[in-house]
């Protein structure tokens, strides 16, 4: 169509003969395209030229001409037409391995690719570890839920047992009260001796006796123990610790001290004791809480409360938590010895042992106070062994207690 001079006004060679120019696109579409191109569409013709590597030349003039050029499309060079071929579109294969192109990249890129693969491998390992940790955590949480349910069930059973023990304790208290009432009815003189006023009078006489004889010589006769009793004295008052410790030392006891409940529990974890003297009001951990903790692992060692609160409700409260006896403050040496003799009787020699004073009279096993001056006489009122506060606090049942007084309940 370029060699046909009839279409020179529509399409022609450019001045250099290396390209062709379409002067009128509309006329070219109507007249020439139907003869040489099956698609009578100028846009399709231009796309076909692009597929055969023809390039449009930008025209600086403002006319409507189109100019196309190809390296092998030249005037009077038909031999070059064989070189004009359709362009082959190369699409990258997605399934082609990355390693096939590694040899064509630079060493720096190869190093980066290797580092990237190493990083991916590390990330995958961390992800697997996190999955494993998550699984283990789920198993642990499930185990904790199972244990929580088991503990809740055990607490429910434990609470039921506590209710039953409280009922049993109330029945025992009712029985003891009934027996005491029967005893009072049958023996009026004994009833008078068991009253609160009479017991307090005895305690006051004992204190007056000790104050009157202060400064006099004391003759101490040690008990015959097969093995010295090991006593743990728990009290935050340093004066009581010192005085009580001296008394127990005179009785040939091995004494250790604790300032509060926490220190007492630490000592009980390391050593075994024959008797525990427990104060009630203490810092850090009081005597009631300490006794509850002791009874969790030790239901045999006697625990005696040292307190100035000795109402009937207090006594029953102390017994209900596992205490074995009450030692009211302030107490005398004979009262302390009565507690020691009662709860450590298994450590004494089987023979009867007594001491004799310089006047030849028989004294109690522990202590007898005598005057060094010949002009000093004994007080008119001498406290007897039955005057100690323990006899009152246990309703004159010091030697005839129910069995549960000696065996604390297990918790």
UniProtKB/TrEMBL annotation:
The keyword Kinase applies. Residues 113-140 form a coiled coil. The keyword Isomerase does not apply. GO terms for biological process: regulation of transcription by RNA polymerase II. It comes from the Eukaryota. It is found in: Nucleus. GO terms for cellular component: nucleus. Its main location: nucleus. One of its GO terms (molecular function) is kinase activity. Residues 230-344 form the Response regulatory domain. The modification 4-aspartylphosphate is found at residue 279. Keywords: Coiled coil, DNA-binding, Kinase, Nucleus, Phosphoprotein, Transcription, Transcription regulation, Transferase, Two-component regulatory system. Pfam families: HSF_DNA-bind (PF00447), Response_reg (PF00072). This is Transcription factor. It comes from Rhizopus stolonifer (Rhizopus nigricans). The gene is SKN7_2.
């Amino acid at each position: 169509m370029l060699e046909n001079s009839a279409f020179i006004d529509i399409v022609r060679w450019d001045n250099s003969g290396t390209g062709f120019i379409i002067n009128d696109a509309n006329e070219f579409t109507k007249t020439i395209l139907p003869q040489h191109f099956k698609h009578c569409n100028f846009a399709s013709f231009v796309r076909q030229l692009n597929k055969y590597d023809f390039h449009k030349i930008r025209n600086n003039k403002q006319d409507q001409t189109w100019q196309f050029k190809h390296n092998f499309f030249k005037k009077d060079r038909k031999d070059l037409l064989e070189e004009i071929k359709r362009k082959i579109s190369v699409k990258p294969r997605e399934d082609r391995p990355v390693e096939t192109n590694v040899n064509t990249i630079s060493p720096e890129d190869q190093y980066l690719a290797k580092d990237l693969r190493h990083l991916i491998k590390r990330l995958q390992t961390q992800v697997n570890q996190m999955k494993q940790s998550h699984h283990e955590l789920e198993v642990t949480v499930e185990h904790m839920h199972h244990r929580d349910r088991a503990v809740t069930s055990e607490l429910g059973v434990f609470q039921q047992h506590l209710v039953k023990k409280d009922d049993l304790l109330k029945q025992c208290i009712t029985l003891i009260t009934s027996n005491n009432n029967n005893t009072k009815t049958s023996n009026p003189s004994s009833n008078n001796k068991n009253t609160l006023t009479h017991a307090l009078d005895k305690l006051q006489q004992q204190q007056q006796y000790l104050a009157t004889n202060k400064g006099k010589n004391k003759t101490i006769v040690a008990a015959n123990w097969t093995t010295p009793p090991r006593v743990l004295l728990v009290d935050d008052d340093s004066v009581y610790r010192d005085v009580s410790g001296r008394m127990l030392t005179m009785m040939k006891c091995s004494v250790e001290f604790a300032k509060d409940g926490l220190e007492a529990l630490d000592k009980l974890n390391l050593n075994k004791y024959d008797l525990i003297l427990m104060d009630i009001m203490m810092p850090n951990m009081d005597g009631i809480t300490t006794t509850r903790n002791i009874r969790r692992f030790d239901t045999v060692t006697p625990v005696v409360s040292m307190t100035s609160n000795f109402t009937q409700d207090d006594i029953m409260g102390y017994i209900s938590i596992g205490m074995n006896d009450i030692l009211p403050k302030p107490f005398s040496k004979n009262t302390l010895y009565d507690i020691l003799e009662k709860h450590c009787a298994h450590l004494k020699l089987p023979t009867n042992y007594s001491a004799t004073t310089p006047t030849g009279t028989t004294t109690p096993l522990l202590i007898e106070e005598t005057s060094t001056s010949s002009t000093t006489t004994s007080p008119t009122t001498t406290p007897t062994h039955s005057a100690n506060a323990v006899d009152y606090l246990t309703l004159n049942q010091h030697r005839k207690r129910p069995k549960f007084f000696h065996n604390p309940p297990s918790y």
